[in-house]
Known about the structure:
Layout: E1 2-3, H1 6-26, E2 33-39, H2 43-59, E3 62-68, H3 74-86, E4 92-95, H4 105-111, H5 123-130, H6 139-150, E5 159-163, H7 170-177, E6 187-191, H8 198-202, E7 207-210, E8 228-231, E9 235-238, E10 246-249, H9 254-257, E11 263-264, H10 271-287
Parallel strand pairs: 1-11, 2-3, 2-4, 5-6, 5-7, 7-8, 8-11
Antiparallel strand pairs: 9-10
Bound molecules: guanine.
Function: Catalyzes the oxidation of 5,10-methylenetetrahydrofolate to 5,10-methenyltetrahydrofolate and then the hydrolysis of 5,10-methenyltetrahydrofolate to 10-formyltetrahydrofolate.
GO biological process, one term: tetrahydrofolate interconversion
Family: Belongs to the tetrahydrofolate dehydrogenase/cyclohydrolase family.
Amino acid sequence: MQLLDGKALSNIIKAEIKEEVDKWTAKGGKKPHLAAILVGNDGASETYVASKIKSCEQVGFTSTFVRLPENTSEEDLLNEVHKLNNDADVDGFIVQLPLPKHISENTIMEAVAPAKDVDGFHPINVGRMCKGLPAYLSATPFGILEMLERAKIETSGKHCVVIGRSQIVGLPMAILMQRNTYPGNSTVTICHSRTQNLKEICKTADILVVALGRPEFVTADYVKDGAVVIDVGITRVADETKKSGFALKGDVKFDDVAPLASHITPVPGGVGLMTICGLLTNTLKAARREVY
Ligand code: GUN
C-alpha cells in the first residue's frame, strides 16, 4: 500500500507556486491577491479559511480576509461580492461554504465574476469545464487530479466510482475523470444516497472517490483488492482525549481499508491540503490572466 501523502505533496506544490510568483514579480507582475469572505462562526469553516490565508503568505500572495456576522443579509453579502468584483487589486476570491440558511448559495455563486471565481463554482466555469474549455476547476477535484498525476496512477480505461454528487466535489470529479486527457479517460459511475447495491458497485471500482460526508462509512467490504482510495470526507467527531475536544475523521475507515488498497489518502493530511493547492493554482492563473 502506498500512502498518498497530501502534506508532503502540498509542500512541494506550494514551493513550486512560490517559485512561479517570484518569477512573475521579478518581471514586474503584481503579487497574486486572493480574498476570502467568511459569513458566521462555523468552527470548521474558520479553520479552512485560516489555512487558506496562511497558505497565501507561504507562497508570496497578498490576501484579504472579509469576516461577516452570521445575521448578514443576502443583499449585504451581494454588496461585498460586488465590491470584490470591482476591486482591481483583487485577482480572485472565494465565499466560504456553507452559508447561513437564509442566504441562497446559488445566488451568491452566480454573483461572483467568472474571471475572479477561483473556486470554479460559477455556472460559466462549470459549463466551460464540461466543454473542455479553459476554466477555473473546482479546487478539490483539481487537487485530487494533481495527486493522481504526481503519483503516476493509471486512470485510462479504469472504473472510477465517485460516492457523492455534490456541486463542489462529486459532480465535477466525475466530469473530470471521464475527459479524454490524463488524468481521465476513466469509465465513471456516480453513486448517491438513492443508489442501490452501493457496496457491490464500489467493489468494482479501480479508483474509489469517497465524498459523502459520513465518517468511516466505507469499510473493507466496499473495496476491491488493489483499488486506489481517495477520501474526501472530513468530519469533526467528539473526542475527549484531544485538546480541541474533537478528532477529524474521513469517510473511509482507514485501518480497515488500507491493507487492501494500492494507494490511499489519509485524513487529515490528504485531500484537504490538495484543495488549498488547487485554490492557489487558480489564483496564480487569475493573476497572470491565463483563463480569462
Ligand atoms: N466549503 C467546503 N469546501 C469548500 C471550497 O472548496 N470552497 C468554498 N468556498 N467553500 C468550501
